[in-house]
Design brief:
By secondary structure, this protein is mainly alpha-helical. It is built from five helices and no strands. The protein is elongated and about 75 Å long. The protein starts with a helix and ends with a helix.
Length: 103
């Protein structure tokens, strides 16, 4: 009987530990930094002129990521930062393609 209680207790502890670990999302510091750098690179490539809409979407996603980061919703902040990065890279590529067509 004691063994059954011990096993049940250990299972309960394991479940609580798993739930706690799943709820402890780390801050998306790296993702935020890369998103900011990607937006800067896109601007330097002329995205404000050649891919303004895509660049604006990237900036909006980054702003959204910052909002979620401040509210400690790290999973959504990470997702928004990754989206901002992808949009910024798209803006960069479009800018480079447009500039290449001009030359």
């Amino acid at each position: 009987m004691l063994a059954a209680r011990t096993t049940a207790f250990l299972r309960g502890v394991a479940i609580v530990a798993l739930l706690f670990a799943a709820g402890c999302e780390s801050m998306p510091v790296q993702e935020m930094s890369v998103a900011r750098q990607s937006i800067t690179a896109a601007k330097e490539a002329g995205a404000e002129e050649y891919a303004a809409e895509v660049l604006l979407a990237a900036e909006e996603s980054l702003h959204s990521a910052e909002k979620y980061l401040n509210s400690r919703n790290y999973a959504v902040a990470r997702r928004e930062a990754l989206e901002a990065k992808a949009q910024a890279i798209d803006a960069l590529r479009r800018s480079e393609a447009s500039r290449a067509e001009e030359n």
